[in-house]
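Researcher: We're teaching a course module on how sequence relates to structure. For the next exercise, students receive a sequence and then see the predicted structure as tokens, so they can try to spot secondary structure elements on their own. Here is the exercise chain.
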Amino acid sequence: MKEIETFKELINEELYYEAHEALEEQWFPIRQIKNDCCLVLKGFINAAVSLELYKRDKIEQSKKIYLVYLKYVTQNRIIKTNNQHIFIELKEFLDKKFNEREIDTILYNKK
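Model: And here is the predicted structure for the students to work with:
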């Protein structure tokens, strides 16, 4: 999926809003379906939104959206999609981004 690669490149460049837009193009046409693929994409979009809010020092809003990311992007949901390998790789990529800056600790109150 070209949009996934674009999304990752934009995340690496800390262009989170633009990353959100890149995936939204894939998600928007299928948003009404609400199948596992659609919900996982929605979760990834929320990860980008959370990172953007964190970047803007809007920690409480970022935390709420981070929790939405965790709600939608689950292993159980990912394995039910046709894109499971791509989605697993993207989840690992995003989790690493949150972890690199200890954002996950701040947002999720991990010890």
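Model: If you want an answer key for the exercise: Helices lie at 2-12, 16-27, 36-55, 59-72, 75-78, 84-100, 103-108. The chain has one domain: 2-105.
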